[in-house]
Design a protein that fits this description.
The structure holds two protein chains of two kinds.
Chain A (H helix, E strand, L loop, with lengths): L6 E6 H11 L4 E2 L8 H12 L6 E2 L5 H13 L4 E5 L1 H6 L1 H9 L5 E6 L13 H5 L6 E4 L3 H15 L8 E6 L7 E6 L2 H8 L17 E3 L6 H32 L7 E4 L6 E5 L3 H14 L4 E6 L1 E3 L3 H8 L4 E6 L10 H8 L1 H4 L4 E5 L9 H15 L7 E3 L4
Parallel strand pairs in A: 2-3, 2-4, 4-5, 5-7, 6-7, 11-12, 11-14, 14-15, 15-16
Antiparallel strand pairs in A: 1-8, 6-13, 10-12
Helix pairs in contact in A: 1-2, 1-7, 3-5, 7-9, 10-14
Chain B lengths: L14 E3 L15 E5 L9 H5 L5 E3 L4 E3 L9 H5 L5 E5 L6
Classes of the chains: A alpha/beta, B alpha+beta.
């Protein structure tokens, strides 16, 4: 069975996110507006006011409450949606951890922005990195169409009975949040059909007024260890599930993204560039251009950051001659960028090869075609045995 | 890894039921004082139960009694009792 073609409109990433969330029929929405996410909150409120979405909007005084409302509603059995960014994400940090620990299947959009410390109202993935160990599933998307499709897929993942984890869908603030591009928005009936499977599952436990049940009550000693182990294994299971849902989505809607990672011209590549988010779109252009020059380069777009797609990456990178990783964030206290650091951890499995770390695109500085071209040239030289620089902050050179 | 641990939670997520498995803190062991009731002064108004932070005042039909398994001995019930029916006494007086 195939989905019918959806309506194509030109929309900003934020409006796309709100529309995709609307199609998933959340019953409770609690968003606190924050740049560059505000348009998501405004659009969703508009949908409810216009009767286009039958959801309860809970107006909260901050992100900490937004996540508390979403977790509580989720534990009461509702489908929920929220969106945030940067300061908002870290303001809900404790509740973020609880939501994951309670295994509440909250779906949240995080519009990537630089984090507090320096008041950078600009793009960067540092917020996502700052919540790496929160126990959430973290997915990074590249363009507006992928925002729509991934939000729909996120509900299938979060609410899957074998998973039961909150899912954070990340897209670059400014670059995608305010970028208007053509997006095919799936039809309501098709989204309903795609999510229908969730209703056939065994019901998940929920809070019932008057009943003496609860979630996250003090997990003492072995109770704590057990809950952590179950959470840890669920994240491991999520990796394969991401691939399966992506394939099913592709079969039904005609668009798929490779699941945990997207590989672009990697099969016969000697060297590979690894990056994520909107920079991956630019990187594809560079890969094509460098191929014309005779450099056998491929691209791996990291879509799933947590859980880290160890097996898929190993398969994609094993036997390559060198890898260059472009991070849009930094790792405090460790020299490589965060994604590069993770990749270094699987280096024994992919074989000994130069892995070059690049820091670029902080605070709205563009990851340009010449920047990525330079990365390709340097990684190519390193593959041929030339000495190379371990870590390069591209904007500083 | 061979797991020898017998799972406590029946659910994937850490849900528990007060009537079955409720993992809870043994807060009664934190107590250095306990509320002692003079039943003749008590008029069963219920303010102690209303203010009790861990909600451990048990309804005994004509008075309320702190469940000592959970009472932390904070003394709020004694402070709030308008008739002075509850008095905090050191735990030492009750040790064997």
């Amino acid at each position: 069975m195939k989905a019918t073609k959806g309506k194509v409109s030109v929309m900003t990433g934020n409006v796309v996110a709100a529309n995709a969330a609307r199609l998933c029929r959340p019953e409770v929405v609690a968003c606190y507006p924050i740049t560059p996410q505000s348009e998501v909150a405004e659009t969703l409120s508009g949908f409810v006011a216009d009767g286009a979405l039958d959801a309860e909007i809970v107006e909260v005084e901050g992100e900490n409450s937004a996540m508390n409302v979403c977790r509580a509603a989720s534990l009461a059995g509702a489908r929920v949606f929220t969106a945030t960014s940067s300061y908002g994400l870290v303001f809900m940090y404790d509740t973020l951890l609880e939501t994951a620990g309670f295994r509440a299947p909250v779906v949240m959009v995080n519009v990537n922005r630089e984090t507090p410390g320096i008041h950078a109202v600009s793009s960067g993935q540092q917020d996502l990195i700052s919540t790496r160990d929160s126990g959430w599933v973290q997915i990074i998307v590249e363009n507006n169409q992928e925002i729509a499709d991934q939000i729909i897929m996120a509900y299938r993942l979060a609410e899957d009975h074998d998973i039961q984890l909150p899912v954070m869908v990340n897209y670059d603030g400014y670059y995608l949040s305010y970028l208007a591009e053509a997006v095919e928005m799936p039809q309501q009936a098709d989204v309903d059909a795609f999510l229908a499977l969730l209703k056939k599952q065994p019901p998940r436990p929920r809070i019932i007024p008057g009943a003496s049940t609860g979630c996250g009550t003090h997990g003492m000693e072995m109770g704590y260890v057990e809950a952590r182990y179950k959470h840890w294994t669920a994240l491991d299971r999520a990796k394969k599930k991401v691939d399966e849902i992506d394939k099913e989505f592709g079969d039904y809607f005609g668009r798929s993204y490779g699941g945990q990672i997207e590989e672009y011209r990697t099969a016969d590549a000697d060297i590979v560039i690894v990056t994520s988010g909107s920079a991956a779109g630019t990187a594809k252009t560079v890969v094509d251009a460098k191929r014309e020059e005779g450099i056998k380069v491929g691209l791996v777009k990291l879509r799933l950051f947590r859980p880290f797609p160890e097996e898929r990456l190993t398969k994609a990178l094993k036997g390559k001659k060198a890898v260059g990783v472009i991070d849009r964030s930094i790792c405090f206290g460790w020299k490589y960028g965060p994604i590069c650091m993770e990749l270094k951890a699987i280096a024994p499995a992919i074989g000994a090869m130069p892995i070059l770390s690049y820091i670029d695109g902080l605070a709205n500085l563009d990851i340009t075609i010449p920047h990525i071209g330079r990365v390709v040239d340097e990684v190519n030289a390193a593959a041929k045995g030339k000495t190379y620089q371990d870590v390069t902050w591209i904007p500083l050179e | 890894m061979v797991i020898k641990h017998k799972m406590i939670f029946k659910t994937e997520s850490p849900w528990s039921d007060a009537n079955q498995v409720m993992l809870k803190l043994d807060t009664g062991s934190w107590r250095t004082e306990r509320p002692v009731l003079d039943i003749d002064k008590c008029n069963y108004c219920g303010l102690c139960a209303l203010y009790c932070p861990p909600q451990c005042m048990k309804d005994k039909e004509d008075h309320y009694q702190a469940d000592l398994a959970f009472c932390k001995g904070c003394g709020i019930c004694a402070k709030e009792c308008p008739r002075g029916a509850l008095v905090m006494k050191p735990e030492g007086e009750f040790s064997k």
